C-alpha cells in the first residue's frame, strides 16, 4: 500500500496487538485488560491512594499507557488510533482503581475525550458511588479552536502533569488537593508544536495531510490538525524561535522565572535532532532570563511517525520540582525506582 | 533541499550542536568536552573503578553519549554522523577516565572504529602508561562481511553489554574480569535488523539508499549497509520470523534458555509499532521454549530517522540478570537511581 510502511499486521489490530506487546514486555509493572483496552498499574487499587486515570486515542505512545506505574497513572484507557476511548472503558477503569479515596481523570482537551470522560464519571458515581474529579489540559497556544477541540488543545503539559500529580497522589494526598495541584500545573504550562512531515493513520492508509518537500507546519496538533501557518523549511534556530516566542509571551514567562523545559519529538524525529533543538531552546530561555530547573528531551507525546517537535514550558516552584524529582517507575518515564 | 527535512541548522554543525544540547539538558550527570567531542560522566574518573569507554559515529543516539553515567559508561567519543571518531579523541578520553584501575574500550566491529581504538590504546599506554583492554562486539548475524566491516557487525548487543559491564565496573571489579565479562556478553548475544525506509546523512543531503514503496531490506546494518535480501513489504508477524529465526538458530538459543530480549527501533519507527513487533517476538520465543527474563523495547541504537527495527537476544544467567537490574542513571537508560 503506497504511503504506508509500517511494522504492523492488519491495521484493525494495531492497538490490541500493541497492548499485548506492552503486557508481554512489562508483566512486572502492568496488568492489561485486553478486552476493555485498559492498562493498569499492577498493584492498583492502592489502599487510601487517589486513583489517577488518563486515556485518549492511541498513536501518541508512550502516552498514556506507558505512563502507568508507581508514581504516575493507575490506569490508562486506549482508544483506536486518534480516536477517543468510550465511556464504558473509562468507567471500568474508574471503578477498578478506586480504593475509596476517589479518582482524578486527566483529560486532554479534545471534544470526544472530554465528553466521554464526563459521561464515565457520571456512570461511575451512579453505579459505584465513586467520587471523581477532572482536570482538562489545554496548554497548546497555537490555535483557539481546532479540528477536534473547542478551546485550546491539550498536549505536552499532560506528560509533566501526570508525573507531578502522580507523585502527589503517591504521597497519599486527598482528592481535592490532587485535583487542585493538577489545575495549577495546567495553568502554569504552555506548549507549541510543529511538523516536518505528516503521519499515516493505519486504518486510513494514506498521509493525514500533504506537506510539500520544502514546507513545514507550525502550530500543528498531535493528530495533524492544522496549525498557525505553513512556512518554508527553516533552520532549527528559527523553528525554536517560532515555538518558544509564542509560548513565553502567552503565560507570560518572565525574567527570573524557573521552568521545567520539555522538548518533545513527534515520533519520527531522531534524538540527535531533538538535542539540536534543545540547544536552541536553552539559549533562547537563557537570553530571556528564564532558568531551566529541570529538562526532558525525547519522544513522549507523539503523533505516530510524524517528524517534528514541540516545546513545553512549565513554571516551576520548589514543590513542583520536588514532585518532579520523586521516584517514578513506568515504561515511558523512570527514575529513582 | 529535497529529501532532507530535519530539525538542524548547518549540516556541518549537527554533531557539535547536539552535544551542546546534551550538555545543556544533563548538567547534573554529564560533562561534555565540546572541543574533543567527548561526553563524560560528571564524576569521572572514579577512584579504583575501571573506566569504560565507547564511541563511534554519531547518528545512533542515544548510543553512545546517552549511555554515559552511573552504572554504564564513563565516557563516549562522538564521530561525525556514521564516521568513526579519531584516535586523539579516544586517547584523551582514555587518559581522562583512568583512575589507575585501567580502561576497557567497548568497540562495535566497524573497520574504522576498531583501528582507531587500537591506535588510541597504544597511544594512551605509551603516553600515560594506561592499561587498556578491548572488547569488539560483533553480534549481527545478517552478513559475514559488510560495507564497513570485516566479519560481523556490532549492533544491538552493544547496548546490553554497556549496561551489564557498566554494573560490573561499578562494583569495583578488576580490569581483566570486566573485560572477560564483556566478552561473555558479546559471545552470548545475537542480533538482526531490517529497514522500511532509508535515512539521510545531513552532510549528504539525500537518502543513503533507495527502497521502493513496496520493499523492505532485511539484515540491514545501522548505517544502511545492504543486508541479506530485499523483499516485498510483509506483516509484522512475518518480519518477526525473518529476524528471530536467524538469530535463534545462530547461537543457537535452545528450549529452556533464558534471554534478555531487546526490540530496538531504528529511529523513525513509532513506539506503537515496536510493541506490535515485541508481541510477535515474544510469541515466537514462547513457542521455541525460550524464556524472556528481561526485555527492552524502544529506540536505543538508531540510524537517524530510518524506519525499521532490530531484534537482539542475549542468553542470560542469574549473574547477567542481576547486573542488568543494577541501578543505572544515564540520559538513555535509567532505573533504580
UniProtKB/TrEMBL annotation, chains A, B:
It comes from the Bacteria. InterPro entries: DhaK_1 (IPR012736), DhaK_dom (IPR004006), Dihydroxyacetone_Kinase (IPR050861). GO terms for molecular function: glycerone kinase activity; phosphoenolpyruvate-glycerone phosphotransferase activity. One of its GO terms (biological process) is glycerol catabolic process. Residues 10-335 form the DhaK domain. Pathway: Polyol metabolism; glycerol degradation. GO terms for cellular component: cytosol. It catalyses: dihydroxyacetone + phosphoenolpyruvate = dihydroxyacetone phosphate + pyruvate. Keywords: Glycerol metabolism, Kinase, Transferase. PROSITE patterns: DHAK. Its EC number is 2.7.1.121. It is an enzyme of class 2 (transferase). Homodimer. The dihydroxyacetone kinase complex is composed of a homodimer of DhaM, a homodimer of DhaK and the subunit DhaL. This is phosphoenolpyruvate--glycerone phosphotransferase.
Amino acid at each position: 500500500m503506497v504511503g504506508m510502511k509500517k511494522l504492523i499486521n492488519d491495521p484493525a489490530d494495531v492497538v490490541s496487538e500493541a497492548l499485548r506487546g506492552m503486557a508481554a514486555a512489562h508483566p512486572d509493572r502492568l496488568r492489561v485488560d485486553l478486552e476493555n483496552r485498559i492498562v493498569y498499574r499492577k498493584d492498583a487499587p492502592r489502599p487510601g491512594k487517589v486513583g489517577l486515570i488518563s486515556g485518549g486515542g492511541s498513536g501518541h505512545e508512550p502516552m498514556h499507557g506507558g505512563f502507568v506505574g508507581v508514581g504516575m497513572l493507575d490506569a490508562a484507557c486506549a482508544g483506536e488510533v486518534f480516536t477517543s476511548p468510550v465511556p464504558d472503558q473509562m468507567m471500568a477503569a474508574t471503578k477498578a482503581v478506586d480504593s475509596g479515596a476517589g479518582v482524578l481523570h486527566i483529560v486532554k482537551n479534545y471534544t470526544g475525550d472530554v465528553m466521554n470522560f464526563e459521561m464515565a464519571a457520571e456512570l461511575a458515581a451512579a453505579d459505584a458511588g465513586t467520587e471523581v474529579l477532572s482536570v482538562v489540559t489545554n496548554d497548546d497556544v497555537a490555535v483557539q479552536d481546532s479540528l477536534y477541540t473547542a478551546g485550546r488543545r491539550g498536549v505536552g503539559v499532560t506528560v509533566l502533569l501526570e508525573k507531578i500529580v502522580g507523585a502527589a497522589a503517591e504521597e497519599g494526598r486527598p482528592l481535592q488537593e490532587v485535583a487542585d495541584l493538577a489545575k495549577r500545573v495546567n495553568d502554569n504550562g504552555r506548549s507549541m508544536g510543529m511538523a516536518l512531515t505528516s503521519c499515516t493513520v493505519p486504518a486510513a492508509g494514506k498521509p493525514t495531510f500533504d506537506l510539500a518537500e520544502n514546507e513545514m507546519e507550525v502550530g500543528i496538533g498531535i493528530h495533524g490538525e492544522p496549525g498557525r501557518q505553513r512556512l518554508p523549511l527553516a533552520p532549527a534556530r528559527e523553528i525554536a524561535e517560532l515555538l518558544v516566542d509564542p509560548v513565553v509571551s502567552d503565560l507570560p514567562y518572565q525574567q527570573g522565572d524557573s521552568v521545567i523545559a520539555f522538548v518533545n519529538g513527534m515520533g519520527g524525529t531522531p534524538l540527535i535532532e531533538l538535542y539540536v533543538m534543545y540547544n536552541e531552546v536553552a539559549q533562547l530561555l537563557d537570553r530571556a532570563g528564564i532558568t531551566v530547573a529541570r529538562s526532558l528531551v525525547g519522544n513522549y507525546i507523539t503523533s505516530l511517525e510524524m517528524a517534528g517537535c514541540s516545546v513545553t514550558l512549565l513554571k516551576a516552584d520548589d514543590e513542583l520540582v520536588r514532585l518532579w524529582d520523586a521516584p517514578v517507575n513506568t515504561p515511558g518515564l523512570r527514575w529513582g525506582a
